[in-house]
Design goal:
Length: 313
Amino acid sequence: MGRMRLRIFTEPQQGATYDTLLTVAKAAEDLGYDAFFRSDHYLKMGDVDGFPGPTDAWITLAGLARETSRIRLGTLMTAATFRHPGPLAISVAQVDRMSGGRVEFGFGAGWYEEEHQAYGIPFPASARERFDRYEEQLDIITGLWSTPVGDSFRYEGRHYRLAEGPALPKPEQAPRPPVLIGGTGVKRTPRLAAHHADEYNVPFNGIDDTLAAFERTRAAVKASGRTDPMVYSAAQVLCCGRNDAEVARRAAAIGRQVDELKENGLAGTPAEVVDKIGRYAEIGSERMYLQVLDLSDLDHLELVADQVAPQVR
């Protein structure tokens, strides 16, 4: 198996305070995980109450930037519908500086219409418009970061226009934080990833569908003439236990069935999880985002760090 980096991925909209996220992030850092990521959502999903309510992704990461020291920090995925591109570029650059250069910018078009309605956020009716806005935002954010100090940045798009500006502040990482683009779109997503992304991520798909998405992006990278390497990664829900009873207990705690999780996630004993991760490594995944849904169960993180991570490095 090629070297695999394991990253913790959380869904705070399901119900988590900043203090809970800080506890998990510090545990992930202490246990040797490569990164702590969170979603960017303002409304819970499914049969949970979401109490005490959502936390903002970039405010959370700003806090974690000052309270951790090694672990990398990022989003899967920041929604382009939530923020204007100029202020977002400033926020991410600032958090990158606050962290000493540990930010990774996962960025997506936005999709969850109900959360926009719940908080009065405009939601373009058509997927085409959402992607058009998303593409312009990618141009603007990466353009602001990469403009040399002392030069100005101007942009004239259909949806966004920026006058001559100083394109400040700059991120700590030069020329920019790594950009992640994800999803299984057939045409635009691979093209945008080839043009803008340092990493392409496929979330919650099986081996065959993940491989097909990787291949589409590899083809787009080749067609673009790009020479910089692309990192390929996958995200899967985690449910690992020392034995069948522990796996069943953890599945019940997140409202899932063991058989379904074994089919659609990383579930089972450490040996079973290692085997499944190995299958993703074989198709080219270099990073695995472990979606941890029970944030009170730090023993889960310890088990994977102790019995899975050493076998996939």
